[in-house]
Protein backbone atom coordinates (compact mmCIF):
# COMPACT_ATOMS: atom_id res chain seq x y z
CA UNK A 1 0.00 0.00 0.00
CA UNK A 2 1.25 3.50 -0.79
CA UNK A 3 1.81 6.08 2.00
CA UNK A 4 -1.37 7.01 3.81
CA UNK A 5 -2.70 10.55 3.43
CA UNK A 6 -1.68 13.27 1.06
CA UNK A 7 1.40 15.00 2.40
CA UNK A 8 2.12 18.25 0.59
CA UNK A 9 5.10 17.80 -1.69
CA UNK A 10 7.31 20.86 -2.17
CA UNK A 11 8.78 20.00 -5.53
CA UNK A 12 12.34 21.33 -5.73
CA UNK A 13 11.82 22.47 -2.09
CA UNK A 14 10.13 25.57 -3.51
CA UNK A 15 8.94 27.90 -0.75
CA UNK A 16 10.57 25.83 2.04
CA UNK A 17 12.66 27.69 4.62
CA UNK A 18 15.49 25.51 5.93
CA UNK A 19 17.12 27.75 8.52
CA UNK A 20 17.61 31.30 9.80
CA UNK A 21 20.62 33.14 8.46
CA UNK A 22 22.11 36.63 8.67
CA UNK A 23 24.39 36.20 5.66
CA UNK A 24 22.34 37.11 2.63
CA UNK A 25 18.97 38.55 1.70
CA UNK A 26 17.56 37.90 -1.76
CA UNK A 27 14.47 40.00 -2.41
CA UNK A 28 12.98 38.22 -5.37
CA UNK A 29 10.04 40.55 -5.79
CA UNK A 30 12.01 43.80 -5.84
CA UNK A 31 15.14 42.33 -7.43
CA UNK A 32 17.47 43.25 -4.59
CA UNK A 33 20.43 41.44 -3.07
CA UNK A 34 22.23 42.14 0.20
CA UNK A 35 25.33 40.56 1.73
CA UNK A 36 25.12 41.00 5.52
CA UNK A 37 22.77 43.95 4.97
CA UNK A 38 24.88 45.77 2.36
CA UNK A 39 23.36 46.08 -1.10
CA UNK A 40 25.22 44.35 -3.91
CA UNK A 41 25.24 47.62 -5.87
CA UNK A 42 27.31 49.35 -3.18
CA UNK A 43 29.59 46.37 -2.69
CA UNK A 44 30.23 45.97 -6.42
CA UNK A 45 31.09 49.65 -6.62
CA UNK A 46 33.34 50.06 -3.60
CA UNK A 47 34.47 46.75 -2.16
CA UNK A 48 37.21 44.18 -2.82
CA UNK A 49 36.99 40.39 -2.79
CA UNK A 50 39.08 40.28 0.38
CA UNK A 51 36.65 42.65 2.09
CA UNK A 52 33.67 40.60 0.87
CA UNK A 53 35.29 37.45 2.26
CA UNK A 54 35.70 39.13 5.62
CA UNK A 55 32.14 40.47 5.52
CA UNK A 56 30.65 37.07 4.73
CA UNK A 57 32.74 35.13 7.26
CA UNK A 58 32.69 37.61 10.15
CA UNK A 59 29.38 39.40 9.58
CA UNK A 60 30.71 42.95 9.48
CA UNK A 61 32.91 45.14 7.32
CA UNK A 62 36.55 44.93 8.46
CA UNK A 63 38.57 47.74 9.98
CA UNK A 64 41.77 48.64 8.15
CA UNK A 65 43.79 46.28 10.38
CA UNK A 66 41.32 43.44 9.95
CA UNK A 67 41.32 43.89 6.18
CA UNK A 68 45.13 43.87 6.09
CA UNK A 69 45.09 40.70 8.20
CA UNK A 70 42.65 38.74 6.05
CA UNK A 71 44.41 39.96 2.89
CA UNK A 72 47.66 38.55 4.25
CA UNK A 73 46.02 35.28 5.34
CA UNK A 74 44.52 34.78 1.89
CA UNK A 75 47.83 35.63 0.20
CA UNK A 76 49.83 33.33 2.50
CA UNK A 77 47.55 30.37 1.73
CA UNK A 78 47.72 30.68 -2.08
CA UNK A 79 50.51 28.32 -3.00
CA UNK A 80 49.49 24.77 -3.97
CA UNK A 81 51.29 21.63 -2.77
CA UNK A 82 53.36 20.07 -5.61
CA UNK A 83 51.17 16.94 -5.47
CA UNK A 84 48.06 19.10 -5.94
CA UNK A 85 49.72 20.75 -8.94
CA UNK A 86 50.56 17.28 -10.27
CA UNK A 87 46.95 16.16 -9.76
CA UNK A 88 45.71 19.13 -11.79
CA UNK A 89 48.26 18.47 -14.50
CA UNK A 90 47.28 14.79 -14.78
CA UNK A 91 43.60 15.62 -15.11
CA UNK A 92 44.22 18.42 -17.62
CA UNK A 93 46.27 16.03 -19.74
CA UNK A 94 43.31 13.59 -19.67
CA UNK A 95 41.12 16.47 -20.89
CA UNK A 96 38.85 16.21 -17.85
CA UNK A 97 36.08 18.78 -17.46
CA UNK A 98 37.47 21.79 -15.52
CA UNK A 99 34.63 21.56 -12.97
CA UNK A 100 35.51 17.90 -12.38
CA UNK A 101 39.16 18.86 -11.93
CA UNK A 102 38.20 21.60 -9.49
CA UNK A 103 35.92 19.24 -7.53
CA UNK A 104 38.51 16.46 -7.31
CA UNK A 105 41.36 18.80 -6.47
CA UNK A 106 39.46 20.77 -3.83
CA UNK A 107 38.53 17.46 -2.24
CA UNK A 108 42.19 16.40 -2.31
CA UNK A 109 43.23 19.58 -0.45
CA UNK A 110 41.89 17.98 2.73
CA UNK A 111 44.78 15.52 2.74
CA UNK A 112 47.29 18.37 3.04
CA UNK A 113 45.49 20.29 5.79
CA UNK A 114 46.51 19.23 9.31
CA UNK A 115 43.24 20.71 10.66
CA UNK A 116 40.84 18.83 8.35
CA UNK A 117 39.23 16.87 11.20
CA UNK A 118 39.18 19.76 13.69
CA UNK A 119 35.54 20.88 13.83
CA UNK A 120 36.08 23.86 16.13
CA UNK A 121 34.77 27.16 14.78
CA UNK A 122 38.27 28.68 14.92
CA UNK A 123 39.75 25.84 12.85
CA UNK A 124 36.87 26.03 10.37
CA UNK A 125 37.46 29.78 9.92
CA UNK A 126 41.14 29.09 9.21
CA UNK A 127 40.26 26.28 6.79
CA UNK A 128 37.72 28.53 5.08
CA UNK A 129 40.46 31.07 4.31
CA UNK A 130 42.67 28.30 2.92
CA UNK A 131 39.85 26.90 0.77
CA UNK A 132 38.84 30.33 -0.60
CA UNK A 133 42.46 31.16 -1.34
CA UNK A 134 43.45 27.84 -2.88
CA UNK A 135 40.35 27.35 -5.03
CA UNK A 136 41.29 30.46 -7.01
CA UNK A 137 44.83 29.13 -7.42
CA UNK A 138 43.43 25.80 -8.61
CA UNK A 139 41.14 27.45 -11.16
CA UNK A 140 43.95 29.67 -12.46
CA UNK A 141 46.23 26.63 -12.76
CA UNK A 142 43.57 24.65 -14.64
CA UNK A 143 43.34 27.56 -17.09
CA UNK A 144 47.11 27.96 -17.35
CA UNK A 145 47.67 24.25 -17.99
CA UNK A 146 44.82 24.07 -20.48
CA UNK A 147 46.60 26.79 -22.43
CA UNK A 148 49.76 24.64 -22.45
CA UNK A 149 51.53 26.45 -19.60
CA UNK A 150 52.88 25.30 -16.25
CA UNK A 151 52.12 26.24 -12.64
CA UNK A 152 52.76 29.89 -11.89
CA UNK A 153 53.95 30.45 -8.33
CA UNK A 154 51.53 32.91 -6.71
CA UNK A 155 52.62 36.43 -5.95
CA UNK A 156 51.87 37.28 -2.32
CA UNK A 157 52.17 41.00 -2.96
CA UNK A 158 49.11 40.99 -5.26
CA UNK A 159 45.46 41.21 -4.26
CA UNK A 160 43.31 38.07 -4.52
CA UNK A 161 41.86 38.79 -7.96
CA UNK A 162 45.05 40.26 -9.41
CA UNK A 163 46.94 37.16 -8.31
CA UNK A 164 44.28 34.94 -9.89
CA UNK A 165 44.81 36.75 -13.21
CA UNK A 166 48.58 36.59 -12.78
CA UNK A 167 48.55 32.82 -12.15
CA UNK A 168 46.21 32.33 -15.11
CA UNK A 169 48.17 34.36 -17.65
CA UNK A 170 51.68 34.41 -16.17
CA UNK A 171 51.58 38.17 -16.43
CA UNK A 172 50.01 41.03 -14.55
CA UNK A 173 46.48 41.93 -15.68
CA UNK A 174 45.64 45.24 -17.31
CA UNK A 175 43.47 47.53 -15.18
CA UNK A 176 40.29 46.93 -17.20
CA UNK A 177 40.46 43.13 -16.95
CA UNK A 178 41.26 43.42 -13.27
CA UNK A 179 38.23 45.68 -12.68
CA UNK A 180 35.97 43.28 -14.58
CA UNK A 181 37.16 40.28 -12.62
CA UNK A 182 36.95 42.07 -9.28
CA UNK A 183 33.30 42.77 -10.05
CA UNK A 184 32.62 39.21 -11.17
CA UNK A 185 34.22 37.77 -8.02
CA UNK A 186 32.09 40.07 -5.85
CA UNK A 187 28.72 39.47 -7.51
CA UNK A 188 29.28 35.69 -7.48
CA UNK A 189 30.47 35.45 -3.86
CA UNK A 190 27.14 34.65 -2.21
CA UNK A 191 23.48 33.96 -2.93
CA UNK A 192 21.73 32.48 0.13
CA UNK A 193 20.57 28.87 0.16
CA UNK A 194 20.56 28.15 -3.57
CA UNK A 195 21.18 24.61 -4.82
CA UNK A 196 24.97 24.55 -4.33
CA UNK A 197 24.90 26.26 -0.93
CA UNK A 198 22.17 23.89 0.15
CA UNK A 199 24.26 20.98 -1.20
CA UNK A 200 27.19 22.25 0.87
CA UNK A 201 24.98 22.47 3.96
CA UNK A 202 23.44 19.02 3.45
CA UNK A 203 26.91 17.46 3.32
CA UNK A 204 28.12 19.50 6.31
CA UNK A 205 24.99 18.86 8.35
CA UNK A 206 26.20 15.27 8.83
CA UNK A 207 29.26 16.84 10.54
CA UNK A 208 31.42 15.88 7.61
CA UNK A 209 34.35 18.31 7.41
CA UNK A 210 34.34 21.60 5.51
CA UNK A 211 36.31 20.16 2.57
CA UNK A 212 33.60 17.52 2.07
CA UNK A 213 30.92 20.19 2.30
CA UNK A 214 32.55 22.54 -0.23
CA UNK A 215 33.29 19.61 -2.56
CA UNK A 216 29.55 18.84 -2.53
CA UNK A 217 28.84 22.49 -3.35
CA UNK A 218 31.12 22.33 -6.39
CA UNK A 219 29.39 19.15 -7.57
CA UNK A 220 25.99 20.82 -7.33
CA UNK A 221 27.13 24.02 -9.03
CA UNK A 222 28.29 22.19 -12.15
CA UNK A 223 24.90 21.68 -13.79
CA UNK A 224 23.58 23.96 -16.55
CA UNK A 225 20.48 24.78 -14.48
CA UNK A 226 22.82 26.39 -11.93
CA UNK A 227 26.42 27.57 -12.36
CA UNK A 228 26.87 25.99 -15.77
CA UNK A 229 24.34 28.41 -17.28
CA UNK A 230 26.96 31.13 -17.98
CA UNK A 231 28.82 28.79 -20.32
CA UNK A 232 25.59 27.52 -21.88
CA UNK A 233 24.40 31.11 -22.49
CA UNK A 234 27.62 32.03 -24.31
CA UNK A 235 27.41 28.84 -26.37
CA UNK A 236 23.91 29.91 -27.35
CA UNK A 237 25.28 33.31 -28.45
CA UNK A 238 27.88 31.44 -30.52
CA UNK A 239 25.12 29.34 -32.08
CA UNK A 240 23.13 32.50 -32.90
CA UNK A 241 26.28 33.90 -34.51
CA UNK A 242 24.85 37.16 -35.78
CA UNK A 243 22.52 39.63 -34.02
CA UNK A 244 20.05 39.41 -36.93
CA UNK A 245 19.56 35.69 -36.25
CA UNK A 246 18.59 36.27 -32.62
CA UNK A 247 14.83 36.54 -33.03
CA UNK A 248 14.57 33.45 -35.22
CA UNK A 249 16.76 31.43 -32.82
CA UNK A 250 14.91 32.46 -29.67
CA UNK A 251 11.45 32.04 -31.21
CA UNK A 252 12.30 28.58 -32.46
CA UNK A 253 13.89 27.54 -29.15
CA UNK A 254 10.84 28.71 -27.20
CA UNK A 255 8.49 27.02 -29.68
CA UNK A 256 10.47 23.79 -29.08
CA UNK A 257 9.96 24.27 -25.31
CA UNK A 258 13.66 24.80 -24.79
CA UNK A 259 14.85 26.93 -21.91
CA UNK A 260 16.93 29.96 -22.77
CA UNK A 261 20.04 29.71 -20.62
CA UNK A 262 20.75 32.74 -18.44
CA UNK A 263 17.05 33.52 -17.93
CA UNK A 264 14.66 32.67 -15.15
CA UNK A 265 15.18 32.18 -11.45
CA UNK A 266 13.48 30.34 -8.62
CA UNK A 267 13.51 33.41 -6.35
CA UNK A 268 13.87 36.48 -8.59
CA UNK A 269 10.62 37.37 -10.25
CA UNK A 270 12.15 40.76 -11.12
CA UNK A 271 15.41 41.66 -12.88
CA UNK A 272 18.33 39.96 -11.13
CA UNK A 273 20.37 42.88 -9.66
CA UNK A 274 23.60 41.04 -10.47
CA UNK A 275 22.59 40.78 -14.14
CA UNK A 276 21.91 44.54 -14.10
CA UNK A 277 25.40 45.25 -12.76
CA UNK A 278 27.05 42.95 -15.29
CA UNK A 279 24.97 44.33 -18.17
CA UNK A 280 25.87 47.92 -17.27
CA UNK A 281 29.49 46.91 -17.09
CA UNK A 282 29.28 45.28 -20.51
CA UNK A 283 27.83 48.43 -22.00
CA UNK A 284 30.57 50.63 -20.55
CA UNK A 285 33.15 48.30 -22.11
CA UNK A 286 31.81 48.75 -25.63
CA UNK A 287 33.89 51.68 -26.93
CA UNK A 288 37.14 49.69 -26.60
CA UNK A 289 35.68 46.21 -27.00
CA UNK A 290 36.87 43.73 -29.61
CA UNK A 291 34.60 42.87 -32.55
CA UNK A 292 33.83 39.52 -30.88
CA UNK A 293 32.69 41.17 -27.64
CA UNK A 294 30.65 43.76 -29.55
CA UNK A 295 28.95 40.96 -31.48
CA UNK A 296 28.18 39.02 -28.29
CA UNK A 297 26.82 42.21 -26.75
CA UNK A 298 24.54 42.93 -29.70
CA UNK A 299 23.20 39.36 -29.59
CA UNK A 300 22.78 39.47 -25.81
CA UNK A 301 20.91 42.77 -25.89
CA UNK A 302 18.64 41.59 -28.72
CA UNK A 303 17.88 38.34 -26.87
CA UNK A 304 17.29 40.20 -23.63
CA UNK A 305 14.78 42.55 -25.25
CA UNK A 306 12.89 39.70 -26.87
CA UNK A 307 12.76 37.61 -23.72
CA UNK A 308 11.82 40.51 -21.46
CA UNK A 309 9.02 41.61 -23.83
CA UNK A 310 7.72 38.08 -24.08
CA UNK A 311 8.27 36.60 -20.63
CA UNK A 312 9.39 39.40 -18.26
CA UNK A 313 6.36 40.98 -16.64
CA UNK A 314 3.98 38.23 -17.77
CA UNK A 315 5.96 35.19 -16.50
CA UNK A 316 8.59 36.70 -14.19
CA UNK A 317 11.38 35.38 -16.40
CA UNK A 318 14.23 37.90 -16.52
CA UNK A 319 17.96 37.69 -17.23
CA UNK A 320 19.91 36.17 -14.33
CA UNK A 321 23.54 36.56 -13.25
CA UNK A 322 24.70 34.13 -15.93
CA UNK A 323 23.31 35.81 -19.02
CA UNK A 324 25.73 38.71 -19.55
CA UNK A 325 28.62 37.02 -17.77
CA UNK A 326 30.07 35.31 -20.88
CA UNK A 327 30.61 38.47 -22.95
CA UNK A 328 32.11 40.24 -19.93
CA UNK A 329 34.48 37.35 -19.18
CA UNK A 330 35.44 37.30 -22.86
CA UNK A 331 36.34 41.00 -22.60
CA UNK A 332 38.68 40.11 -19.73
CA UNK A 333 40.28 37.34 -21.80
CA UNK A 334 38.80 34.52 -19.72
CA UNK A 335 38.28 31.26 -21.66
CA UNK A 336 34.80 29.69 -21.60
CA UNK A 337 36.05 26.59 -19.80
CA UNK A 338 36.79 28.68 -16.71
CA UNK A 339 33.43 30.46 -16.38
CA UNK A 340 31.81 27.99 -14.00
CA UNK A 341 35.04 27.21 -12.08
CA UNK A 342 35.47 30.97 -11.45
CA UNK A 343 31.89 31.08 -10.19
CA UNK A 344 32.80 28.26 -7.78
CA UNK A 345 36.02 29.95 -6.64
CA UNK A 346 34.11 33.16 -5.87
CA UNK A 347 31.19 31.34 -4.23
CA UNK A 348 33.55 29.41 -1.94
CA UNK A 349 33.30 32.41 0.43
CA UNK A 350 29.50 32.09 0.62
CA UNK A 351 29.61 28.31 0.97
CA UNK A 352 32.09 28.48 3.87
CA UNK A 353 30.19 31.30 5.59
CA UNK A 354 26.93 29.35 5.41
CA UNK A 355 28.50 26.12 6.60
CA UNK A 356 30.15 27.74 9.61
CA UNK A 357 26.94 29.60 10.49
CA UNK A 358 24.81 26.45 10.15
CA UNK A 359 27.16 24.44 12.37
CA UNK A 360 26.43 26.86 15.23
CA UNK A 361 22.97 25.31 15.43
CA UNK A 362 23.40 22.15 13.38
CA UNK A 363 20.69 19.66 12.58
CA UNK A 364 21.11 16.92 10.00
CA UNK A 365 18.97 17.45 6.87
CA UNK A 366 16.56 14.61 6.43
CA UNK A 367 13.48 15.39 4.35
CA UNK A 368 10.80 12.86 3.49
CA UNK A 369 9.46 11.42 0.28
CA UNK A 370 6.00 10.11 -0.34
CA UNK A 371 6.40 6.45 -1.27
CA UNK A 372 4.13 5.47 -4.17
CA UNK A 373 5.48 1.98 -4.97
CA UNK A 374 4.18 -1.43 -3.85
CA UNK A 375 5.08 -3.14 -0.55
CA UNK A 376 5.15 -6.70 0.82
CA UNK A 377 5.80 -8.26 -2.59
CA UNK A 378 6.54 -11.96 -2.64
CA UNK A 379 10.27 -12.74 -3.10
CA UNK A 380 10.58 -15.14 -6.06
CA UNK A 381 13.84 -17.13 -6.37
CA UNK A 382 15.79 -16.12 -9.50
CA UNK A 383 15.31 -19.51 -11.25
CA UNK A 384 11.55 -19.06 -11.09
CA UNK A 385 11.45 -15.49 -12.38
CA UNK A 386 10.15 -14.94 -15.88
N1 LIG B 1 13.59 29.98 -20.73
C1 LIG B 1 12.31 29.72 -21.05
N2 LIG B 1 11.37 29.36 -20.19
C2 LIG B 1 11.72 29.26 -18.90
C3 LIG B 1 13.02 29.54 -18.46
C4 LIG B 1 13.97 29.92 -19.43
N3 LIG B 1 15.24 30.18 -19.09
N4 LIG B 1 13.08 29.37 -17.13
C5 LIG B 1 11.86 28.99 -16.73
N5 LIG B 1 11.04 28.92 -17.80
C6 LIG B 1 9.64 28.50 -17.78
C7 LIG B 1 9.56 26.99 -17.70
O1 LIG B 1 9.58 26.40 -19.00
C8 LIG B 1 8.27 26.78 -16.96
O2 LIG B 1 7.21 26.98 -17.88
P1 LIG B 1 5.88 26.11 -17.76
O3 LIG B 1 5.30 26.47 -16.41
O4 LIG B 1 5.09 26.56 -18.92
O5 LIG B 1 6.32 24.68 -17.84
C9 LIG B 1 8.24 27.94 -15.97
O6 LIG B 1 9.06 28.96 -16.57
C10 LIG B 1 8.81 27.59 -14.60
O7 LIG B 1 10.11 27.02 -14.81
P2 LIG B 1 10.81 26.01 -13.82
O8 LIG B 1 11.96 25.37 -14.50
O9 LIG B 1 9.78 25.14 -13.18
O10 LIG B 1 11.31 27.04 -12.72
P3 LIG B 1 12.29 26.70 -11.56
O11 LIG B 1 12.06 27.71 -10.51
O12 LIG B 1 12.19 25.26 -11.17
O13 LIG B 1 13.73 26.86 -12.22
C11 LIG B 1 15.64 27.80 -13.17
C12 LIG B 1 14.52 27.98 -12.13
C13 LIG B 1 16.72 28.82 -12.95
C14 LIG B 1 16.29 26.43 -13.01
C15 LIG B 1 15.03 27.95 -14.58
O14 LIG B 1 14.52 29.26 -14.76
C16 LIG B 1 16.01 27.63 -15.68
O15 LIG B 1 16.20 26.45 -16.01
N6 LIG B 1 16.72 28.66 -16.27
C17 LIG B 1 17.71 28.41 -17.25
C18 LIG B 1 19.02 27.99 -16.58
C19 LIG B 1 19.68 29.14 -15.88
O16 LIG B 1 19.86 30.22 -16.43
N7 LIG B 1 20.14 28.87 -14.64
C20 LIG B 1 20.89 29.83 -13.85
C21 LIG B 1 20.09 30.30 -12.68
S1 LIG B 1 20.94 31.58 -11.80
Care to describe what's here?
The protein is an all-alpha fold and 386 residues long. It contains 16 helices and three strands. Coenzyme A binds next to loops. The site of coenzyme A has 17 residues, from loops.
Secondary-structure map with pairings?
Elements: E1 24-27, E2 32-35, E3 38-39, H1 40-46, H2 49-58, H3 64-76, H4 82-93, H5 98-109, H6 121-146, H7 160-169, H8 175-187, H9 195-204, H10 210-221, H11 229-240, H12 246-255, H13 273-285, H14 291-315, H15 325-331, H16 339-359
Helix pairs in contact: 1-8, 2-3, 2-16, 3-6, 4-5, 4-6, 5-6, 5-10, 6-7, 6-16, 8-13, 8-15, 8-16, 9-10, 9-16, 10-16, 13-15, 14-15
The chain binds coenzyme A.
Short characterization:
The chain has 386 residues and is mainly alpha-helical.
- Low-confidence spans: none
Query: Which H/E pattern describes the elements?
Result: EEEHHHHHHHHHHHHHHHH
Average residue pLDDT: 96
**What is the number of beta strands?**
3
Specify the number of helices: 16
Distance between the termini: 24 Å
Give the amount of beta strand, in percent. Answer: under 5%
| Largest β sheet strand count, sense and barrel closure | 3 strands, antiparallel
Structural class: mainly alpha
Which of globular, elongated, flat, extended, rod-shaped describes the shape? globular
Percentage of residues assigned to helices? 55-70%
Rg value: 22 Å
Task: Kindly report the spatial arrangement of strands forming the biggest sheet.
Answer: 1-2-3
Task: List the bound ligands.
Answer: coenzyme A
Amino acid sequence: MADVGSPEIHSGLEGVYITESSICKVDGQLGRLYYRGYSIDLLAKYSSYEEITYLLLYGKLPTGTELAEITKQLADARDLHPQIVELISTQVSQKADPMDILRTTTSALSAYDPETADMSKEANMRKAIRIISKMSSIVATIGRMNAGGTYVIPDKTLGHVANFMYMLNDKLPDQRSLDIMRDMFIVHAEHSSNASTFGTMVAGSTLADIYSAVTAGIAVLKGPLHGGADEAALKMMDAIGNPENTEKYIESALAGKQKIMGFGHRVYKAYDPRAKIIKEYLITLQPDATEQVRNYTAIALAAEKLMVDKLGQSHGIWPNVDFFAGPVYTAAGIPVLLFTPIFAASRSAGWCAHMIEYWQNNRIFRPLEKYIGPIDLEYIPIEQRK
